[in-house]
Amino acid sequence: QLQFVESGGGLVQPGGSLTLSCTASGRTFSSNPMAWFRQAPGKEREFVARISFYGGYTATADSVKGRFAISRDNAKNTVYLQMNSLKPEDTAVYYCNTNPPANDSWGQGTQVTVSS
């Protein structure tokens, strides 16, 4: 069972950039497709980006297309989310998980706040 620890969030001004990291514990990370999700206050958790187990295929939600990019380093058991041109509506707690997500593997997430 994989467990995840997300990091890299913070307060950033509109138009700024952040890179989130998610490190997994467990020996099956490299064989799992991974994804980033986010949950804004008062809203349901939503899909942000996904990546295949070998990293050759990626996809992003329409709301972040062209601004966010997902990548992974299987040697480090880590998946990344590069976020550029951030908007206030990107404010949320960001989580990583397998794709599809495992209900008992959600971590604490990392808070991203986009505000001037």
Draw up the topology in text.
Elements: E1 3-7, E2 10-12, E3 18-25, E4 34-39, E5 46-51, E6 58-60, E7 68-73, E8 78-83, E9 92-98, E10 110-114
Parallel strand pairs: 2-10
Antiparallel strand pairs: 1-3, 3-8, 4-5, 4-9, 5-6, 7-8, 9-10
How does this structure look, described?
With 116 residues, this protein is mainly β. Helices cover 0% and strands 47% of the residues. The protein is built from no helices and ten strands. It has a six-stranded mixed beta sheet with strand order 2-10-9-4-5-6, with no helix packed on it. It starts with a strand and ends with a strand. The mean pLDDT is 96.
List keywords for this structure.
single chain; 116 residues; mainly beta; six-stranded mixed sheet; four-stranded antiparallel sheet; 10 strands
**β content, as a range?**
over 45%
Cross-sheet strand order for the largest sheet: 2-10-9-4-5-6
- The ordered string of helix (H) and strand (E) elements is EEEEEEEEEE
Global shape? globular
Rg, Cα atoms, Å:
13 Å
Number of strands: 10
Name the structural class: mainly beta
Provide a count of the helices: 0
| Average of pLDDT | 96
Poorly predicted regions are none
Beginning-to-end CA distance, first to last residue: 40 Å
Strand count, sense and closure of the main sheet?
6 strands, mixed
| Fraction of residues in H or I helices | under 10%
Brief sketch in words of this structure:
With 116 residues, the chain is mostly beta strands. Helix content is 0%, strand content 47%.
